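protien #1 (seq + structre)
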Amino acid sequence: MSFFADIAPLKYEGPESTSDLAFRHYDPDKVVMGKRLEDHLRFAVAYWHSFAWEGGDPFGGPTFMRPWQQAADMDHARAKADAAFELFDILGQPFFCWHDADVRPEGATFAESLKNFEEIIDYFLGKMESRKVKLLWGTANMFSHRRFMSGASTNPDPDVFAWSAATVKACMDATMKMGGQNYVLWGGREGYETLLNTDMGREMDNMARFLSMVVDYKHKIGFEGTILIEPKPQEPSKHQYDYDVATCYGFLKRYGLENEVKLNIEQGHAILAGHSFEHELALAGALGMLGSIDMNRNDYQSGWDTDQFPNNTPEVALAYYYVLKAGGFSTGGTNFDAKLRRQSLDPQDLVAAHAGGMDICARGLMAAAAMIEDCGLQAALDARYAGWDTPESKAMLDSDLGSIFDKVVAGGIDPQPKSGKQEILENYVNRFV
């Protein structure tokens, strides 16, 4: 029986449409800056939040009584996959993403879990033969099971490190088999709860060694996709070793991995780290580390990562502005790492949530493209930093403190404050959103 019965594939109906199940702004074939919107945005559905999450929270159990959630066996895993591919047909997005634990039931042994996993991957491949949808990235869930309560690659128990390494190998093999364009390491518990029982130096060394093994294995099997890590500050550990973009870059640089690994940046994690999404994207772009994004939002009153679908065009526009400034996506894309509210029970809610998110992203990207083509923000930046383009300023950077001191004492420099024009620039952005 179809889970999404009577829901037709979504169509672009334009801004005046009043339908809950239509695109108002996302026209996949619309050309922006020489590229189709679908090719700019590269949307992906997150298998875990859309089909594995059951609607629970810390104070209450599941509210989503989906047909495949009644038991953990392969029949239910296949039923879940059937529903997932129904949604893909309705949305028409080009990609999806998974964790291993989302798609297969846990076995009594590693070998049994692996057998289940390989079987469902083949089931996916059979469904993908007649569809355009592809795999944006795969990853391993190394945070939910109790064996990972003290981390995966950073665990004090070497057996957990070994289990994690075997898990990632299996997931990388499956990602390559499916033609995945990236592989993500999502370090959900790669951090600590208390320093009283933590050797940070050993844990970071082990985490780096693990990542080096992943990179080596990528080259061994000829995987042409990108290895990504996802910055996060405290989810759920008190402190994560991959706290934000700057921390991740410092970590990668220290261990000589900055040319092998890029970043998958999530809006919700950026906020938890005390940054804006555009800050993290701009920094990743400046460092040459931008790989892919998880698009969601937080409830700003909750103080936690609530993983809601995006609905704020100005925020999204600035995010895509810096994505486009960095050259846009190559292997990466826009993954909806977002979930329904636990009171949104109906299949239509899941379709409408994605439709709205895709519309918001389309509006944001078109606004970002318009700002880039208008050149207003870039012109303001060029004007503000124009002094650094003079021969005198360039020479100063090649000089020394003593020479600069002599010039200032001689009266050759008299700085006068200049307006940063923040409000004018904010008004400028609002013209486009």
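ok now protien #2
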Amino acid sequence: MSDIRSFEAQTAPADWFALLKPRVMTLVVFTAFVGLLVAPVGVNPVIGFASILFIALGGGASGALNMWWDADIDAIMKRTQSRPIPSGRIAPRDAMWFGLVLAAVSVVMLGLTANWFAGAFLAFTIFFYVVIYSMWLKRLTPQNIVIGGAAGAFPPMIGWAVATGGVSVESVLMFALIFMWTPPHFWALALFMKSDYRDAGVPMLTVTHGRRATRAHVLIYALLLAPVAIGAGFTSIGGPIYLAVAVLSNAVFIAGCWRIWRRDEPVAEVDGYRVEKRVFAFSLLYLAAHFGAFLAEAALRPFGYGGW
């Protein structure tokens, strides 16, 4: 980490908050919240709120530990150079201890608040993201985001476990939806990040196999994602509303990924990767729409809406 600048700037509370990766935490909180609310077992609102808070802290702990470990490559990549550690606002050791303390607190408190299965699941998720993905897979294999993406797919299962104390087909399908969505979402980003990953020595698929192969992988995963997403509509957490959203969203997403696959690199360079950027932006809406539809199905049932 010798490339990291000297730590002269005064640390502000916003810098510690930035370590938590708040945008990623938003996804963690939302999907865990949906997993909690669509579960067949009701949860006391106070316990539910506290549980989501501790899941959010666990997600933030993962983000802080990831930033600590990746500080050397964050200092190289343009997208991450302004983060608190490479910009010199927080020392790496302080970020490490901050993440470890948050991880311990979040796991113990979730276990005490909800149940120890949910607490253990959160602990495993933090371990998976920090050790399996960040420390091992990210710099080892172009499949890093495929396997490591499981860490971001666990939150709805944790939310479900808070309510039920276990796992079910429905929670596994919510996991599978995020797991299959992550590669095309992230590779669309990698396609227009250009040389960042190459400069940092990260074996992203765009670096090891080229953009042409990456474009094909984006389309393949979008096609594999569609039956998973649509299939969830025929379970107890699905229904006509969710199914309509899933069919429309997957049709639009596949069409966008098809356009990515059909492009050639000179054209992509000339027009500034507009298609890739649009697909990446839509992928965020895609996931929000699916989990929002799960939530709508659950919210309407007390008013006589029967789903399937």
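Confidence is low (pLDDT under 50) at residues 1-9.
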